[in-house]
Amino acid sequence: MRTTICAAALLTLVGSGCGDTTTTGGADDLTASGPDLRPPADLSVPVDLEPPADLEPPEDLVSTDDLAVAKPKTWQVAVGPMNSLTFAPAALNIKVGDSVKWTWAGGGHTVTSGMNGVADNKFCSPADMNCAKGATSNAAATYTHTFKAVGAFPYFCLPHANAGMTGSITVK
Fold it and tell me: How far does Cα 127 stand from its chain's mean position?
């Protein structure tokens, strides 16, 4: 007695016809010669490694030697907004390569890196020089500093540090 068995899963897997099962006796005496499970010689999967011509990277990414990296950002901080003794925002979390631009809303303030009114000379307005002297700036003045290393960077206004005019930049 000769029985032909078709397995849908095998058809899908190997793309061939049915296998033959031959019996020589009772139901317990089965010998099987199944389908050839090797893939056909002409099996190939086309792979297009080129991206579509109209594919653009997101605006905040640039390509450097085929490595996409985030574009540096410039963050805005107001110095003494609404005649206050504050920086707004007082704390920022940024990335290496980002810049912070402080804009004076009121006069008589500094941006001086350090803590407790003591300059650490990492950055200071107006030009990163003579930080301990603390040259004050007037309304509409600006000062920009680019952060090139990971770390925590506290800062203060030299004339108003004791009044709590402090800020911090965390660079990740």
Answer: 30
Spans of the chain below 70 pLDDT: 1-69
What's the predicted TM-score (pTM) here? 0.62
For the chain, the structural domain boundaries read 2-33, 71-171
Whether 87 contacts 163, CB under 8 Å: no
DSSP string, the chain: -EEEE--HHHHHHH---PEEEEESSSTT-EEEE----SPPTT-------SPPTT----TTEEEETTEEEEPP-EEEEEESGGG-S-EESSEEEE-TT-EEEEEESSSSB--EEEETTEEEEEEETTTSS-TTT---B-TT-EEEEE--S-EEEEEE-GGGGGGT-EEEEEE-
Superfamily holding 71-171: Cupredoxins -  blue copper proteins (2.60.40.420)
